[in-house]
């Protein structure tokens, strides 16, 4: 665990949050948005950054991950089917 820092922990939390929302969408709403959330969640996991750095010499900056999460979560929790289902 040599790369355990605050940004990696937050990235794991963001990724797991999106996986959870993806699974909930697959089970409760429709598979298409659920699969989308699960695929996008891989962008947040730190091993993806390691892979992108090794293969393409490219990293996704943390601030971009935060913006992406905000842009995904806002409509999901605001007007999405899960929001209607749970009365958010």
Low-confidence stretches: none
**What's the number of structural domains?**
1
C-alpha-based Rg, rounded: 14 Å
Largest sheet: none
Query: What general form does the structure show?
Result: elongated
Specify the helix fraction band.
over 70%
N- to C-terminal distance: 37 Å
Oligomer: single chain
Strand content: under 5%
Number of helices, where a helix is a run of at least 4 consecutive DSSP H or I residues:
5
What is the residue-averaged pLDDT?
Answer: 86
- SSE arrangement, N to C: HHHHH
Helix-and-strand structural type:
mainly alpha
Count all strands and give the number.
0
Structure characterization notes:
The chain has helices at 6-29, 31-41, 46-56, 62-78, 81-86. It has five helices and no strands. With 88 residues, it is mainly alpha-helical. The chain has one domain (6-86). α1 runs antiparallel to α2 (31-41). Helix content is 78%, strand content 0%. The protein is elongated.
What attributes does this structure have?
88 residues
Give a summary of the structure in a few sentences.
The protein is mainly alpha-helical and 88 residues long. The protein has helices spanning 6-29, 31-41, 46-56, 62-78, 81-86.
């Amino acid at each position: 665990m040599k790369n355990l820092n605050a940004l990696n922990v937050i990235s794991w939390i963001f990724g797991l949050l999106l996986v959870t929302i993806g699974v909930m969408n697959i089970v409760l709403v429709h598979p298409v948005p659920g699969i989308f959330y699960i695929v996008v969640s891989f962008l947040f996991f730190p091993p993806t950054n390691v892979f992108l750095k090794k293969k393409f010499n490219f990293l996704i900056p943390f601030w971009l991950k935060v913006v992406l999460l905000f842009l995904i979560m806002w409509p999901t929790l605001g007007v999405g089917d899960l929001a209607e289902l749970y009365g958010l």
